[in-house]
Automatic annotation (TrEMBL):
<dbReference type="InterPro" id="IPR036188">
    <property type="entry name" value="FAD/NAD-bd_sf"/>
</dbReference>
<protein>
    <submittedName>
        <fullName>FAD-dependent oxidoreductase</fullName>
    </submittedName>
</protein>
<dbReference type="Pfam" id="PF01266">
    <property type="entry name" value="DAO"/>
</dbReference>
<keyword id="KW-0560">Oxidoreductase</keyword>
<feature type="domain" description="FAD dependent oxidoreductase">
    <location>
        <begin position="6"/>
        <end position="354"/>
    </location>
</feature>
<dbReference type="GO" id="GO:0016491">
    <property type="term" value="F:oxidoreductase activity"/>
</dbReference>
<dbReference type="InterPro" id="IPR006076">
    <property type="entry name" value="FAD-dep_OxRdtase"/>
</dbReference>
<dbReference type="GO" id="GO:0005737">
    <property type="term" value="C:cytoplasm"/>
</dbReference>
């Protein structure tokens, strides 16, 4: 039997969950949220979930600022805990990073975001080896979240508003006729809709390609580790992006931290349907060496876990979000490129408004459409800081 609704959203990661929630709760549309596994079972669930607004582009910084507001609103309006902890955020700067960071901070401050660069000598950071550090970006509204709880909060609020969730329901293909997508086919049957949002993350490109839609989103394998400090020495109380050793870390509690590699680093293409989910041994030892060099408290740390997940990456590292000229009824919400968790709530809000009103919320947000590829308007500034 064929079902009908206003919008189908494919993928219940943070971006898809936020899109579905805002379409239903804010705009009153009938929505089906369809997920091939469980909620947040893709890249979202294994995100380091560091929340920081330090980006080299005002659009990304503003979206993350708005996402923080949306996490807060989810708890205040719906009583849904997101696991967000506003501990603050630190970025360690080498001498070659200082001038660019000053420009970034000035731009971010112009958006009303509270941030500054501090002199490491004036800070009480007993866990840090300060040699070579030219400054520390401090962002008091930063922190981290539990990515699964946060996504589940948006999904629960979506269902509470009357939206329908279907988990363990892979979308087999997009239904297309001519230049229009009009629904999806699942194992349970077809769903016809006025709009279909592809928020399938690393699986977005294969799904689009089945319907003849070009989508230059690559899946790359991203590794992370979990370490427990054993020395008894002081530890960071915030997430830290270490620009000198190119690593990031964030607290898990109980002297445990997620630690991964930051930019610059090599990226390994992956088949999203068949990739190695454990971390490589050389990667684990490399991360520990970088960690011990800057944070002596981790000398002799115990490896608790290591794993690999997937990033969905666009050619310019900025997400695709919005409709496109070449096919009606189809919208992208993918290509988070390692930043999807921070951007996801605001991406979903603004995409939902675009669908409901027929116009982008701001001219800047319209730049995220896939049409920028054909128009030669790709973003040329890389994201600032680490890709953590």
């Amino acid at each position: 039997m064929t079902e009908t609704c206003d919008v189908v959203v494919i993928g219940a990661g943070i971006a898809g969950a936020s899109t579905a929630y805002h379409l239903r709760a804010e705009h009153g549309l009938s929505v089906r949220l369809i997920e091939r596994g469980a909620v947040a079972s893709g890249g979202t669930g294994q995100s380091a979930a560091i929340i920081r607004q330090h980006y080299s582009n005002a659009l990304a910084a503003g979206l993350t600022r708005d996402s923080i507001t949306l996490f807060d609103a989810m708890e205040q309006r719906h009583g849904r805990p997101t696991g967000v902890r506003r501990t603050g955020y630190r970025l360690l700067l080498g001498p070659d990073m200082l001038e660019g960071a000053r420009r970034n901070v000035a731009m971010i401050q112009g958006l009303g975001i509270d941030t500054e660069i501090l002199d490491v000598a004036a800070l009480d950071l007993p866990w840090l080896e300060p040699d070579g550090i030219a400054g520390v970006v401090w962002e008091p509204d930063g922190g981290y979240a539990d990515p699964v709880r946060a996504t589940e909060a948006f999904v629960a609020a979506f269902q509470e508003a009357g939206g329908l969730l279907f988990t363990r329901t892979p979308v087999r293909t997009l239904l297309r006729e001519g230049d229009r997508v009009f629904g999806v086919m699942t194992e349970a049957g077809s769903v016809h809709a006025g709009a279909v949002v592809n928020a399938a993350g690393p699986w977005a490109a294969p799904l689009a390609h089945q319907a003849g839609i070009a989508l230059p989103v690559s899946a790359v394998r991203e590794q992370d580790t979990v370490w427990e400090a054993r020395s008894g020495r002081p530890l960071p109380d915030t997430p830290v992006s270490n620009g000198l050793e190119a690593i990031y870390l964030r607290p898990l509690g109980g002297r445990r931290f997620v630690v991964g590699r930051g930019f610059p680093k090599a990226y390994e293409p992956a088949d999203p349907y068949n990739y190695r989910t454990t971390a490589d041994e050389p990667f684990v030892f490399d991360v520990l060496a970088r960690l011990e060099r800057r944070l002596p408290s981790f000398q002799g740390a115990t490896l608790v876990d290591s794993y690999a997940a997937l990033y969905d990456v666009t050619p310019d590292w900025y997400p695709f979000a919005g409709p496109r000229r070449d096919v009606a009824g189809y919208l992208d919400c993918n290509g988070g490129s390692g930043h999807g968790f921070k951007l996801g709530p605001a991406l979903g809000r603004d995409l939902a408004a675009w669908i409901a009103t027929g116009a982008p919320r701001t001219p800047d947000f319209a730049r995220l459409s896939h049409d920028r590829i054909a128009d030669g308007r790709v973003f040329t500034q890389a994201y600032g800081g680490n890709r953590g």
